[in-house]
Amino acid sequence: MPDYRKSFRAAAVQAEPVWNDLDGGIDKLEAFARDARDGGAEIVAFPEVWLPGYPWFLWLDSVAWQSQFVVPYAANSLEIGSPEWQRLESVARSLGISLAFGFSERSGGSLYMGQAVIDADGRTLSTRRKLKPTHVERTQFGDGDGSDVVVVDTPVGRVGSLNCWEHLQPLTKYAMFSQDEQLHVAAWPSFSIFGGAVNALGPEVNVGASRQYAVEGQTFVLAPCATVGPAAQELFADTDAKRAMLPLGGGYARIFGPDGSSLADPLAPDEEGILFADIDYSAILAAKNAADPVGHYSRPDVFTLHHRDTGRLPKVAASARDIPAAEPVVADDLVSAE
């Protein structure tokens, strides 16, 4: 049951990752988490795949050229439960602040676009995978499943997370709204790719997606966003043409209230820093009085959403007969939201 009486301070980070350096990335996360804690925040959110940074090489050249980046990226991806993971839990516990961060998850030999919430006692409350990687991301990352569309109870309320263009997936959003989400982490990599030539990848559309999520779901939204700095260009852009496709900046971190209002002054697109906002969940009740898409503003007699929230498939089955049979897909499973 969500508590609408709670108020606290939250923070969203805008910064360049430490590219392909897991330990260095955790060091930088810890420094920002300490600054957020010192600024009074009880939770701090970091960008998409903050650890070990977004794989911009996927967008810049051929698969053959990209191959030089594949092993270093995978080697610096994060395994859940590893010593590095335990260090992140220790950071949260020692600083007394909840962490919401993106990471490239390595499981076996496969990679997934992960997000996690670790509370101020150092307990991992949730991990999830991006349900469907976007465009060329699918050449590197695997899919999530129904268990990755989840909102969890935390000391700062009901918290959910999505990555980047998952905020353009109507059914995913509705499944999140239906779980009484109060605080949402909308994680982004940066909005600099192709220098604005592709409007759908730029700040106007994607900042708008974060704001729209807040209004649609009547949630507070922390939208951390990474930047592209000289280190990124040095690593990924070996020609002037690639530097033009991956220009400096791209940071558009924001925090929005459940009525779509902006709660923090933005930083310059090439500036690193932290946005802070004071959160008061009673504002959600005011927003839902006007329109609650999973309550009084819904029409369940017309639309329904079927969310298959099953988890990971078993890695090994004793025999073929031990593998559960797939459920038949019926028409209702393919139609959408209330």
From TrEMBL:
The keyword Transcription does not apply. Gene3D superfamilies: Carbon-nitrogen hydrolase. Pfam families: CN_hydrolase (PF00795). One of its GO terms (molecular function) is nitrilase activity. InterPro entries: C-N_Hydrolase, C-N_Hydrolase_sf, Nitrilase/CN_hydratase_CS, Nitrilases_CHs. Coiled coil: none annotated. Residues 8-281 form the CN hydrolase domain. Keywords: Hydrolase. It comes from the Bacteria. The keyword Cell membrane does not apply. SUPFAM superfamilies: Carbon-nitrogen hydrolase (SSF56317). The active site is at residue 48. Transmembrane segments: none annotated. Belongs to the carbon-nitrogen hydrolase superfamily. Nitrilase family. PANTHER family: ARYLACETONITRILASE (PTHR46044:SF14), NITRILASE (PTHR46044). This is Nitrilase. It comes from Microbacterium testaceum (Aureobacterium testaceum).
